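Can anyone check this?
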Amino acid sequence: MFLLIVFLKIYFATMDANINSWSASIQSASGIEMAKIIHYGFAPTPSFVASLLVAVYLFHKKYKYEALLLIGAMAANVTLVEIIKMLVHFPRPLNGILTIQGFSFPSGHVTSAVVLFGLLTYFAWNRWKSSIRRILWSLFSVAIAIVVGLDRIYLNVHWFSDVLGGYSFGVFWLTLSIFTFQHLTKVVINQELPTTNREEKKKR
């Protein structure tokens, strides 16, 4: 899906322009101030710092593998997004409310939100027993990702296709990270089992 959007991005030009003009027509002073708060609060750097804080908490709770997954996935996400931006080399809208350096596709804010809250949701479903808590957190995470995406369009700092590409790449990287994590943890657990069994026999 992500690669398809990359190849077809030029065909989004009319839609991008129309949505960009529409978002400019609905902007207001109070809306812009609120959008700026979301912009700064969910930028890739604050999101990565938040992942570090959560990872420290996970280490403290003895969930070291989950902590490593969170840090690794978020760090790689930020790096890969910057590489993709350089490769695609697509300019930002000229009518952005904020002056932001760098290229436009995909949205780093969106990919960071998808990966961070996607992993937190994955942890919640693995650790929480309450179905209600897990569902509520999942809905909250989806809402955050949607709000961040809409915020990029509202501020005219990204095209619609940038946000769509951000969602696609974020879901791709989140899925790949979780799949790799599950595979590696199975390998590690299988390697540790013989040692554990020998220790238990010695204690007997």
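Reply from J.R.: I decoded it. DSSP finds eight helices and no strands in the chain.
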